[in-house]
Write a structure and sequence with these properties.
Layout: E1 8-10, E2 17-18, E3 24-28, E4 31-34, E5 37-38, E6 45-51, E7 54-59, E8 64-67, E9 75-80, E10 94-97, E11 99-102, E12 109-110, E13 116-119, E14 125-127, E15 130-131, E16 138-144, E17 147-152, E18 157-160, E19 168-173, E20 187-190, E21 194-198, E22 201-202, E23 207-211, E24 218-223, E25 225-228, E26 231-234, E27 238-243, E28 246-249, E29 252-255, E30 262-268, E31 273-276, E32 279-282, E33 292-298, E34 301-304, E35 307-310, E36 318-320, E37 324-326, E38 329-332, E39 339-344, E40 348-350, E41 353-356, E42 359-364, E43 377-381, E44 384-387, E45 393-398, E46 400-405, E47 408-413, E48 415-419, E49 422-426, E50 431-435, E51 438-440, E52 445-449, E53 452-456, E54 460-461, E55 464-474, E56 490-491, E57 494-504, E58 510-517, E59 520-527, E60 535-542, E61 550-553, E62 556-560
Parallel strand pairs: 20-23, 21-24, 22-25, 23-26, 24-27, 25-28, 26-29, 27-30, 28-31, 29-32, 30-33, 31-34, 32-35, 34-37, 35-38, 36-39, 37-40, 38-41, 39-42, 40-43, 41-44, 42-45, 43-48, 44-49, 45-50, 48-51, 49-52, 50-53, 51-54, 52-55, 53-55, 54-56, 55-57, 57-60
Antiparallel strand pairs: 1-6, 2-3, 3-4, 4-5, 6-7, 7-8, 8-9, 10-16, 11-21, 12-13, 13-14, 14-15, 16-17, 17-18, 18-19, 46-47, 57-62, 58-59, 59-60, 61-62
């Protein structure tokens, strides 16, 4: 029989080591067994190893002895604490955060003696599966310069050079052993793993790879106050982040398919919050057919103070019942034809930037018949909402009840878009639909540039709309008048800043008249072909215009400055 390889290690009575002479070495009852005969000179043996032609034993005192043949004596006489094992210790900067409650993977750190350190479900250190009763409230393990470190919930560190030593210093230290800027190996969790985080702060160098090789997800559950400061990668599996307290991501959460589809879910419990101050990235896979999806669900609060960039994904990115707050940036820049959505029955506040390059639905408030849910839901925009690039399309919709009336669609909206910032549609056929009453306060403005379109509900009030080049639309398949708007339905002054503009009313039975007034005038739009024509819009125009600049073409009232 061939000799065992270097670094062959036995920790149980299962298995055997074969030396170069064919002698068989094993363990039985804490003693070394040679070709089936117990070596009576050995006791309390924990580990048997083979290294460079010598048999090594380690006992409970964490001391090592060796011999090269059965007839030799074990040496040195009093043992040595220096491990003979080569390359079995974890690399420097290895970091493990959280307790693995279940699953195939048991991430931990290994010292030079081959002893394996892990975090138990009740947040203690276990050495080779045996709980160390002197530890408690452990949130992280690290390996640095031949020493194993533990960090507890008080953010204090202790270390030891071997399992037999006591943790030192006696009262711990706040100095982290992990050098700034170091890059540790990635910790991999396999399908079915469940990891518990309670009051943890993962170091900036922490990285985790979630691998789902079956139909069971990898689940991280966060209790208390947690910070994920490193990199969480989901490259080919299903990763669930269950937030039951406060989880702050100051690092990076990356979902990108490599050899399989990737799905990441952030489930926020009622009263809990997920806060992103770092990056959340959703990318397309290298193979076009692979899918990356990010789902945010639950009754808690999602707050983005960092960056969210979606360049690949599915149609139901966010579907929750709590509040959605953005003070950072959200960019949706996916391949054309892929739909994205941010849907919540709660409120939305945007003080940052929401940038759409594709097709996106943002919906807030309860949907259903009148009386079926709260009617005071709101989307408060104090930042910037942008529809960029050609053929991008964003719909901002309040929860609504849709029914038929007059052959047009009527909405009983359950919410209002309050704009104190900027709404911009720019680019040929770039459209922003506002399927909600628009209430603009001081500083609120809607800008239409470079052939863009903003489609409004007729019940809009305050602020200003600037049309440099593009179209302001009313009605349509998704947004329509709530009955005839009447002269009192639309109260947003419009400034025609370019040479061309259009007002679309989604019906062809219209007539228009411009009436000059001080500082501008009124564009009156009525239903044509009636003895008592019904006025459907009175749009206040800011600036100097004359009647010959306006004419009706189909469903549109066109403005051309050169006329």
């Amino acid at each position: 029989m061939a000799a065992s390889a270097d670094n062959t290690i036995l920790r149980s009575e299962d298995g055997v080591i074969v030396d170069a002479a064919g002698t068989r070495w094993s363990l039985r009852g804490g003693q070394v067994v040679v070709n089936g005969i117990v070596d009576q000179t050995s006791r309390d043996v924990l580990v048997l190893a083979y290294e460079h032609g010598r048999i090594w034993q380690e006992n409970a005192a964490r001391l090592w002895w060796s011999k090269s043949s059965p007839g030799d004596s074990w040496s040195p006489p009093y043992g040595t604490p220096v491990s003979p094992l080569v390359g079995v210790a974890s690399p420097d900067n290895t970091v493990v955060v959280g307790a693995v409650l279940s699953g195939i993977a048991k991430p931990g750190v290994t010292d030079a003696n081959g002893d394996r350190y892990t975090i138990t479900a009740d947040h203690r250190v276990a050495v080779n599966g045996t709980v160390d009763p002197t530890t408690a409230r452990v949130i992280a393990l690290a390996y640095e310069n031949g020493r194993v470190y533990q960090e507890n919930a008080d953010r204090r560190w202790w270390s030891k050079g071997s399992a037999a030593e006591a943790w030192a210093p006696a009262y711990g230290t706040r100095h982290s052993p992990i050098p700034p800027g170091s890059t540790p190996p990635t910790v991999t969790y396999f399908s079915g793993s469940t990891v518990d985080y309670t009051d943890t702060v993962a170091p900036p160098e922490y990285a985790v790879l979630a691998v789902d090789d079956g139909d069971r997800p990898v689940t991280f559950t966060y209790h208390g106050r947690n910070v994920a400061a490193g990199v969480i990668q989901n490259l080919e599996g299903t990763l669930a982040l269950d937030v039951e307290g406060l989880l702050t991501n100051s690092g990076t959460i990356l979902t990108r398919p490599s050899i399989g589809n990737s799905f990441t879910t952030i489930d926020i419990a009622a009263g809990a919050m997920f806060r992103n101050t770092g990056q959340i990235i959703l990318q397309r896979g290298q193979v076009g057919a692979l899918t990356a999806s990010l789902h945010v669900i639950g009754d808690g609060t999602f707050r983005n103070d960092g960056q969210i960039r979606i360049t690949g994904g599915s149609s139901d990115d966010i579907a929750m019942h709590g509040s959605f707050i953005n003070t950072g940036s959200i960019a949706i820049d996916d391949a054309f034809g892929t739909h994205h959505s941010l849907v919540t029955t709660g409120n939305i506040r945007n003080a940052g930037t929401i940038e759409n390059h594709n097709q996106t639905l943002i919906q807030f408030g309860q949907s259903g018949p009148p009386g079926s849910g709260p009617t005071n839901a709101f989307f408060l925009n104090t930042g910037t909402i942008e529809g960029l690039y050609d053929v991008s399309h964003m719909t901002i919709a309040a929860g609504a009840f849709v029914h038929a009336a007059d052959a047009y669609t009527v909405h009983d909206y359950h919410g209002t878009l309050v704009n104190e910032g900027r709404i911009l549609a720019t680019g040929a056929a770039s459209t922003i639909e506002i399927a909600a009453p628009l209430q603009q306060r001081a500083g609120g403005r809607v800008d239409i540039e470079n052939g863009g379109t903003v489609q409004l509900d007729a019940r809009s009030d305050g602020g200003i709309i600037h049309i440099t080049s593009g179209m302001l639309a009313f009605g349509g398949d998704r947004i329509a008048f709530h009955g005839p708007a009447g002269a009192s339905g639309f109260h947003v002054p419009v400034s025609l800043d370019g040479d061309r503009a259009a007002f679309n009313f989604a019906r062809t039975d219209i007539a228009a008249e411009f009436r000059p007034a001080a500082y501008g005038g009124d564009l009156l739009v009525r239903l044509a072909g009636s003895l008592a024509p019904e006025q459907i819009a009175d749009i206040k125009l800011l600036g100097g215009y004359h009647a010959s600049q306006f004419h009706v073409s189909g469903s549109e009232v066109l403005f051309t400055r050169a006329d």
